[in-house]
Amino acid sequence: MDKVRVRFAPSPTGYLHIGGARTALYNYLFARHLNGTLVLRIEDTDHVRSTDESTKAIFESLNWLGITHDEGPYYQSERRDLYKQYAQKLLDEGKAVYQDDPAKGRAVVFKMPEGKSIRMDDLIHGVIKFESKFVGDIVLIKSDGFPTYNFACVIDDSEMGITHVIRGDDHISNTPKQIALYEALGKPVPKFAHIPLIMGEDGSRLSKRHGHTSVGEYKDLGYLPEAVFNFLSLLGWSPGDDTEIMTKDEIIKRFTIERVKDKSAQFNLKKLTWMNSHYIKHKPAEDLFGLAEPYLTKAGYDLSRFPKEKLVRLVDLYRERIKVVSEIAGITRFFFEDAVNYQPEAVDKFIKTTEGKAVLGAVQDELAKITKLEHEPLENLLRSIAESKGLKFQGVAQPLRVALTGSSVSPPIFETMELIGLEKVKGRIKEAIALK
RNA sequence: GCCCCGAUCGUCUAGUCCGGUCUAGGACACAGGCUUUUCAAGCCUGCAACAUGGGUUCGAAUCCCAUUCGGGGUACCA
Q1: Which nucleotide is nearest to A273 (CA to C1')?
Q2: Is the CB of residue A381 less than 8 Å from the CB of residue A366?
Q3: What percent of chain A has pLDDT over 90?
Q4: Catalytic residue among A129, A133, A191, A208, which?
Q5: Residues A140, A46 share a domain
Q6: How far is the CA of A343 from the C1' of B40 (A)?
Q7: Are residues A243 and A389 both part of a single domain?
Q8: Predicted local distance difference test score (pLDDT) of residue A278
Q9: Considering only CA atoms, which of A153, A150, A125, A126 is closest in space to residue A139?
Q10: What's the domain range around A186?
């Protein structure tokens, strides 16, 4: 079998949409699995809606996801002569005619042959038949001189030697038009695979009102590219067994177009988020810190005050507690800011009680005797305080936690103390005891 | 309206092509429990589906038809 050639052909009229990303992904997976070629083509024939900014954003998102192409990008706006040549050919052969519109001007229109049955054997849907009488004539060149989507698409796919057209379901009804064009041009017809659309969580078409719909938004929120890649690959495809967490290579290895579902899938943010938390848990500490750093900086924290080692340790402690990386900023506030942000409910419950103050007083006294925070001695110390007061360990841990972080929720208390440092720990306990 | 696609737990799906092994499996979510130094994480358990009606067949989630319900298209947008 000759090498397969596929293409991803977005129109630059907005950011890379989740649906578009999945189309790109499936083309990518198909090409890589079969050692073929992925061509990137920008379909900017709508010169009113296309923008360079969108093109750039699409490249960035593709790059972030790790979807790399082998050829291109080609721009349809730079290939107008080519489309005109082919339009002329059809005109000369009497298969197309000029059509004048008093308002818009002169266009070139392909006359759909009558009484024909057009058949396509879709790789995902099987055989689909269309009657030419329902298809209608096709505008080839608009009066602004630009080709229409259907025409440019056929010329390019043909010229670029595309063997498999993998695209969204919404193009099924374009396909008979394109097949008619291939035939009129005497060009071989590629194979088609129409993948179902991604729907919003309420079952309707994915749109802005469903929340985040662009790949860039997920990046900004702190989703990892490998999570989005993995999640998207499973939206409409499965390897056939129960495997869900897979590396890029594993997905490439197992991906076949035949296993793509012919049913539209609903986007499921909670599952993506779960998958993201999985990848966060397994990220090497240094890498995770690298991902967290921008959010920390953006929150206004002065990272230069701390040794990098300590920062890496901090982020590492929180990896099991965050589902998206952006959450790291809010949750580590106690570490970066000198003033503790005491949560009133936590203070009422654990510090303002007589028991709470007594515990903190005892901890304060004991801490005054030591010069270094080490897990084991520290644990013995706190446990003995609990014992002497007839409390469970958490009777000590919770007041202390609130005193140090302002919240009743934090990573394990010993690690938290080590992170904050002995001097600050003492200061905060003193401050907490003084709380009225 | 017309043309086209689709239909398994709330959601993503396995199973459908090659009917019996499916009293329908997994995952997310949800509920309960265990663990525990809080919250998470982790582990265990539970809840929960073959859209409906007709066929074909000894036997249908699997094949056929209809209905219903979703979705797409119907542009000199892509």
Answers
A1: B28
A2: yes
A3: 73
A4: A208
A5: no
A6: 19
A7: no
A8: 97
A9: A150
A10: 79-195
Nearest residue to nucleotide B75, by CA–C1' distance, is A139
> What is the distance between the terminal CA atoms of chain A, rounded to a whole angstrom?
80
* A98 & A153 share domain: yes
Helical axes A52-65 vs A18-33, angle rounded to 10°: 50
A208 is catalytic: yes
Q: How far is the CA of A242 from the C1' of B23 (A)?
A: 22
Beta-bridge partners for A214: A17
List the A271 CA – B32 C1' distance (angstroms): 22
Rounded to whole angstroms, the Cα distance separating A296 from A294 reads: 5
My answer on whether A238 and A153 are in the same domain is no
| Whole-number distance in Å between A202 CA and B50 C1' | 22
Nucleotide nearest to A168 (CA to C1'): B72
Any domain includes A276: no
Q: Is residue A41 part of a domain?
A: yes
Long-range contacts of A329-334 (CB under 8 A, 24+ apart): A329/A295, A329/A296, A329/A298, A329/A299, A329/A301, A330/A299, A332/A296, A332/A301, A333/A299, A334/A404, A334/A405, A334/A406, A334/A407, A334/A410, A334/A420
The CA–C1' separation of A241 and B24, in angstroms, is 15
pLDDT at A1: 57
Give yes or no: residues A40 and A115 share one domain: no
- A71-75 and A37-42 strand pairing: parallel
pLDDT digits (tens, 9 = 90+) for A125-181: 999 999 999 999 999 999 999 999 999 999 999 999 999 999 999 999 999 999 999
Q: Which protein residue's Cα is closest to nucleotide B73 at C1'?
A: A173
For residue A278, tell me if it sits in a domain: no
- What is the domain count for chain A? 4
Query: A191: which strand partners?
Result: A164
Q: Which nucleotide is nearest to A140 (CA to C1')?
A: B76
Whether A419 is in a domain gets the answer: yes
Nucleotides of B under 7 A from a protein CB: 2-8, 10-15, 25-29, 37-42, 70-78
**Residue A393, nucleotide of least CA–C1' distance:** B37
CA distances from residue A177 to A73, A184, A229, A323, A331 in whole angstroms, order as listed:
25, 11, 33, 46, 56
pLDDT < 50: residue spans in chain A: none
Question: What pLDDT does residue A392 have?
Answer: 87
Of A163, A195, A227, the residue at which a domain comes to its end is: A195
